Amino acid sequence: MKNRIKLQKMKENGEKITMITAYDYPSAKLAQEAGIDMILVGDSLGNVVLGYDSTIPVTADDMIHHGKAVRRGADDTFVVIDMPFMTLHVSMEDSMKHAKRIIQETNAQALKVEGADENVLEVIERLTKAGIPVVGHLGLTPQSVHVLGGYRVQGKTKEDAEQLIEDALNVQKAGAIALVLECIPYQLSKIVTEELSIPTIGIGAGPYCDGQVLVYHDMLTYGVDRVAKFVKSYTNLNHPVKQAIKTYINEVKSNEFPDKEFSYAMENDDVNALYGGN
Ligand SMILES: Nc1nc(=O)c2c([nH]1)NC[C@@H]1CN(c3ccc(C(=O)N[C@@H](CCC(=O)O)C(=O)O)cc3)CN21
Ligand SMILES: CC(C)C(=O)C(=O)O
Ligand SMILES: [Mg+2]
């Protein structure tokens, strides 16, 4: 497991780990070409690519479909794939079956699982023993949105923070290679990052994590409108994309496009012969 060593080294050396989500060939290709350390095929694809209002309808087949496209676009990047809703909570056999399919069909390096209950910890242990690296995910775990009562910041009280620290230690003990911390106070992610030997990757978890992850469509403002406070918009693609499509519409309607420059031609003799033949 060469990649595990590298992640671990980056934490030890204080070199920040960069991660972005990707869901298809072009997003993966651009992320790899830009030099990202890790790609996450997030179940957030339910929101940003499939148009659902949560990650709950996302299936293992969805993850495989998109995971394969990402792998084709980024053949040389560490790819992590989310285990989607309910692939961890039916039975151990069911979880292993889904994990096996996702890994074998996508050729990803690792799987990510939300939470730290008994089932999830056992899944982490079993996959790790089978040689499949696992990334944990604590704090705001969107697959539990209906239990959490909305997309709220987690771990804000002493009790909740202590529980999260205990969960993080358990996830590490079960064998996880890294831990995503989502939407928690920066003071808490600082403690967790110091307590753990594995790298923490934050999203809405402040500056003290060993790495950061953002959703592709959020950081590019592409097809999304309202985003969480923790999202930094590095560019806004909504405007230029919409503008380009509007210009195209106008040019077709006004017979400006396509002109000869964008058309194919026959030789004059052949055109004449064609008319003559009629
Ligand atoms: N486009 C997108 N980006 C994401 O980061 C993301 C998804 N989708 N879908 C799955 C989950 C859902 N996520 C979310 C969604 C909303 C907030 C949000 O609006 N949070 C409030 C917190 C308010 C509070 O508790 O104080 C905010 O205003 O930032 C946070 C995480 C993160 N994940
Ligand atoms: C927000 C990240 C961590 C995620 O789980 C996803 O994109 O699905
Ligand atoms: Mg996810």
UniProtKB/TrEMBL annotation:
<comment type="function">
    <text>Catalyzes the reversible reaction in which hydroxymethyl group from 5,10-methylenetetrahydrofolate is transferred onto alpha-ketoisovalerate to form ketopantoate.</text>
</comment>
<dbReference type="GO" id="GO:0015940">
    <property type="term" value="P:pantothenate biosynthetic process"/>
</dbReference>
<keyword id="KW-0808">Transferase</keyword>
<comment type="similarity">
    <text>Belongs to the PanB family.</text>
</comment>
<dbReference type="GO" id="GO:0008168">
    <property type="term" value="F:methyltransferase activity"/>
</dbReference>
<feature type="binding site">
    <location>
        <position position="82"/>
    </location>
    <ligand>
        <name>3-methyl-2-oxobutanoate</name>
    </ligand>
</feature>
<comment type="subunit">
    <text>Homodecamer; pentamer of dimers.</text>
</comment>
<feature type="binding site">
    <location>
        <begin position="43"/>
        <end position="44"/>
    </location>
    <ligand>
        <name>3-methyl-2-oxobutanoate</name>
    </ligand>
</feature>
<dbReference type="GO" id="GO:0032259">
    <property type="term" value="P:methylation"/>
</dbReference>
<dbReference type="InterPro" id="IPR003700">
    <property type="entry name" value="Pantoate_hydroxy_MeTrfase"/>
</dbReference>
<comment type="pathway">
    <text>Cofactor biosynthesis; (R)-pantothenate biosynthesis; (R)-pantoate from 3-methyl-2-oxobutanoate: step 1/2.</text>
</comment>
<feature type="binding site">
    <location>
        <position position="43"/>
    </location>
    <ligand>
        <name>Mg(2+)</name>
    </ligand>
</feature>
<keyword id="KW-0460">Magnesium</keyword>
<keyword id="KW-0566">Pantothenate biosynthesis</keyword>
<dbReference type="GO" id="GO:0000287">
    <property type="term" value="F:magnesium ion binding"/>
</dbReference>
<dbReference type="GO" id="GO:0003864">
    <property type="term" value="F:3-methyl-2-oxobutanoate hydroxymethyltransferase activity"/>
</dbReference>
<keyword id="KW-0963">Cytoplasm</keyword>
<feature type="binding site">
    <location>
        <position position="114"/>
    </location>
    <ligand>
        <name>Mg(2+)</name>
    </ligand>
</feature>
<dbReference type="Pfam" id="PF02548">
    <property type="entry name" value="Pantoate_transf"/>
</dbReference>
<keyword id="KW-0489">Methyltransferase</keyword>
<protein>
    <recommendedName>
        <fullName>3-methyl-2-oxobutanoate hydroxymethyltransferase</fullName>
        <ecNumber>2.1.2.11</ecNumber>
    </recommendedName>
</protein>
<dbReference type="InterPro" id="IPR015813">
    <property type="entry name" value="Pyrv/PenolPyrv_kinase-like_dom"/>
</dbReference>
<feature type="binding site">
    <location>
        <position position="82"/>
    </location>
    <ligand>
        <name>Mg(2+)</name>
    </ligand>
</feature>
<dbReference type="GO" id="GO:0005737">
    <property type="term" value="C:cytoplasm"/>
</dbReference>
<feature type="binding site">
    <location>
        <position position="112"/>
    </location>
    <ligand>
        <name>3-methyl-2-oxobutanoate</name>
    </ligand>
</feature>
<keyword id="KW-0479">Metal-binding</keyword>
<dbReference type="InterPro" id="IPR040442">
    <property type="entry name" value="Pyrv_kinase-like_dom_sf"/>
</dbReference>
<feature type="active site" description="Proton acceptor">
    <location>
        <position position="182"/>
    </location>
</feature>
